[in-house]
Amino acid sequence: MCAAERDDGGMTAARLTALFTAFRPGDGFLGTSELARRTGMPKSSAHRLLGHLVRQGLLERRDGSVRLGLKLFEVGQVAIGQRGLADAARPYLADLREATRNTVHLAILEGTEVVYLDITRGPDAPALPSRIGGRFPAHATAVGKAILAHSPEDVVETVISAGLPRIGPRTLTAPGLLRRQLAKVYEEGTAYDREESGPGVVCVASPVLDNSGLARAAISISGWSTRVRVERVAPAVRTTALTLSRTLP
């Protein structure tokens, strides 16, 4: 992608953001002229972008005016739900970090990747590449495998069909081997990453389950392979995940 294309994409994103944030509490339907005035963009540009947003269901049109659409409400509810999960998990993550002095992660699955909702870094932990809001291939992480082992088959198939690239020295890249490991994770309730996400790093994770037994998220402990005995801390991770599962609605 050339620099001009990147700049155009950034400008479009900025204009779309400006249109959404131009709506104020109490606003209903607004006309194109008013939205162009509030955002400072040309009326023709506002008209074009508004038409695109209407077609995507993000805005609703009536008599030449638009208002925020129900799809935005649906997306917002997902964001609120994930924030609630992170807030509920925070004290449990803190306790687990204090007990082990290693980095604790809370992650969910989105597509073929895990997204880190919260990270509580331990004083003795390595400088890991993970960050809050960051993503990592699910098959190469303990949290990803913990979630996949308690997910519907079509979710697992989506991850495998997308390919299993090598991320670390010991990443599982064979579909059959990954499936066998997921079956073991399902039986034991814990998943391991032994230098699969990166050299020298190990991790143990357990799923946070809903009432039907499907994974909503996963909690993990990560540390140096020379310092952390994952089998020793696995019970603490498992207990924390089970406790959080029971507290969630």
TrEMBL record:
This is IclR family transcriptional regulator. It holds the Pfam family IclR_C. It comes from Amycolatopsis cynarae. InterPro entries: GAF-like_dom_sf, HTH_MetabolicPath_Reg, Tscrpt_reg_IclR_C, Tscrpt_reg_IclR_N, WH-like_DNA-bd_sf, WH_DNA-bd_sf. Residues 71-249 form the IclR-ED domain. SMART domains: HTH_ICLR. Keywords: DNA-binding, Transcription, Transcription regulation. PANTHER family: HELIX-TURN-HELIX TRANSCRIPTIONAL REGULATOR, ICLR FAMILY, HTH-TYPE TRANSCRIPTIONAL REPRESSOR ALLR. The lineage of its organism: Bacteria, Bacillati, Actinomycetota, Actinomycetes, Pseudonocardiales. Residues 10-70 form the HTH iclR-type domain.
